[in-house]
Amino acid sequence: MSHAAIADKPASTLRGASLPKWSPYAIAAGSLAVAVGIGLAAGLDSKVQWGLIAAILFLLGTFGIAARVEGRRQAKDRIATSLVWVSFLLAVVPLVSLVWVTVARGVKVLDVYFLTHSMGVVADTEPGGGIYAAILGSLEQVGLATVIAAPIGVLTAVYLVEYGRGNLSRAITFFVDVMTGIPSIVAGLFILSLMLMLDMEPFGFAGSMALAILMMPVVVRSTEEMLKLVPNELREASLALGIPKWRTILKVVLPTSIGGITTGIMLAIARIAGETAPVLLLVWGNPFINANPFEGAQASLPLYIYQQYANSAGSGAAYDRAWAASLTLIAFVMILNLVARGIARWKAPKTGR
Amino acid sequence: MAKRIDVSGLTAYYSAHKAIEDISMTVEPRSVTAFIGPSGCGKSTFLRTLNRMHEVTPGGRVEGKVLLDDEDLYGQGIDPVSVRREVGMVFQRPNPFPTMSIFDNVAAGLRLNGSYKKAELADVVEKSLKGANLWNEVKDRLNKPGSGLSGGQQQRLCIARAIAVQPKVLLMDEPCSALDPISTLAIEDLIGELKERFTIVIVTHNMQQAARVSDRTAFFNLAAVGQPGKLIEIDDTERIFSNPSVQATEDYISGRFG
At what angle do helices A316-347 and A254-273 cross, to 10 degrees? Predict the structure, then answer.
């Protein structure tokens, strides 16, 4: 008995049964097929429902098969991996479909004429017209908002990280957090109440001020995080050279974190570029070109999209213009992001030899 | 050019915690003084009080006198920024400015102080890099970033950066503890050359290093964890390592504790 046991090669404790490499794909395909079957059989119309059923089947199937073949620990590992993949798909599918639909419907009227002309007297139900006034207005309003909010935000963050001690900095941090949560319509109403008190007509800069309120806390937060990343040793090295604190901040701390700060500002711009509510209250929209943000109603891209949709009375021409404007807005934000990444890479501390 | 440091009755705090208590000593010009002692005994804290870097730490404050050639660094109307121009510092970990080139790193002190003539700058940078024994290794790539150098080269770059502003005293806080033996040797040789021109104070955990580079050695100790660190004795390095006058010093040096 014992001899036979010794002669037998003992089962390796390091090796175990494992599923082949292609098994996840097979399980995915299988669960998709079953989900389609269930959907057809039960008469479910929604493809979203089919997809969700397939996702659940995939997770359960992976766990069941892996637990049977490989054991419980590997099964847990596989289900974690599957969860990551399923979540990824759930997040990406709506995003891709949004971009796809916007591009597909937006390119119909998007051309040079559309970008360089305004609505003027073109009725909302007729084809023609363009978004030049809206692009101009958006650029001016967002630009002015950035000019106000970026310096204040960066300086606030510098105060909080480099100087702030005690109650004042705690209070500022608290109010910045509160400001982050302000709904955009409330910021708009705040400026609107000022406008009504001063008896003013809508104009572009009023929108800029509301947008600046929305942008400031985002800039403060992101800049603060970036400044905290600068190692304290660099500050000490600079101070120990007899460099005053303000020059240390200006010449050592800020250059080291400038990439991250720029990225933060760009993301804040991207956030306010799509705000509609305050613009609707304060800038009103204008089918004619108004290049002066300090007087008279102006147009703006997000507002243009809303108005084309709302005033279209079911006209296809207006819908097409709204889609094209949406595509322009997405492209604008995308370009800003790319610029931010470019600056971050260009300004990042260099490590090359 | 080098200046004498005279410390009397110096006590330093971190908020309410007393880190070092009642330290008095004299540091001779044109010599190397080493501080040794177990971790947490306040060597680095004491070093940082000598160029008013201690107060940069939140809650840091100091009582007592530090005379730099008869001028009290903690006296009325003394500008800490000016103090740090006279008393330079090299840190434990090499910390070149990551956004600057090798040249700019060395020139940083002069440039950011605003006290330089353009024509002199290249000259000062070359002299400082030569002074730090780094010139030959970097003269062909002065425009490359300083963080691309090896650890030992970075530390010598930091030394060049510190001596470029022509301080009177150079403080070194464990300058070799992050370096390999060869780079350590390069820095120790450098210290030997620099003491011709500067007053040098060096904190080290390596007793052989203290014995090799220093003229005088100060031994710090603390009674117990949480107690303030104190200066036990300061004497010629030879005497400290052969025949110290306090038993605790001999115990520490012979490895009986710490």
Answer: 180
Q: Count CB atoms within 10 A of the CB of residue B236.
A: 12
Tens-place pLDDT, residues B84-134: 999 999 999 999 998 899 999 999 988 887 767 788 899 999 999 998 889
Residue located via tokens 């104070």: B201
Sketch the domain layout of chain A as residue ranges.
18-104, 116-347
Q: How far is Cα B160 from Cα B154, in angstroms, rounded to an integer?
A: 10
For residue range A80-100, what is the model confidence (pLDDT) as tens digits? 999 999 999 999 999 999 999
What is the reported pTM?
0.85
Q: Which residues of B touch A255 (CB under 8 A)?
A: 99
Query: Which residue pairs from A172-181 have beta carbons closer than 8 angstroms and sit at least 24 positions apart in sequence?
Result: A176/A216, A176/A217, A176/A220, A176/A221, A177/A217, A179/A213, A179/A216, A179/A217, A180/A217, A180/A218, A180/A221
Rg (CA), chain B: 18
Asked if B48 is an interface residue toward chain A (Cβ–Cβ < 8 A), one would say no
Query: Are B53 and A239 inside 8 Å of each other by CB?
Result: yes
Tell me whether residues B81 and A233 touch, CB distance under 8 A: no
State how far the Cα of A191 lies from the Cα of B143, in Å rounded to an integer.
51
> Which superfamily is assigned to A116-347 in CATH?
MetI-like (1.10.3720.10)
Query: What is the mean pLDDT of the segment spanning A139-150?
Result: 96
Structural domains in chain B?
5-96+169-253 (3.40.50.300)
H helices within B54-150, ranges in order? Answer: 80-86, 102-113, 118-131, 135-138
In this structure, the number of other CB atoms found within 10 A of the CB of residue A195 comes to 17
Q: What is the mean pLDDT of chain A?
A: 89
Give the C-alpha separation, B158 to B147, whole Å.
Answer: 11
One-letter identity of residue A69: V
Question: Given A233, A236, A351, which is nearest B147 (Cβ)?
Answer: A351
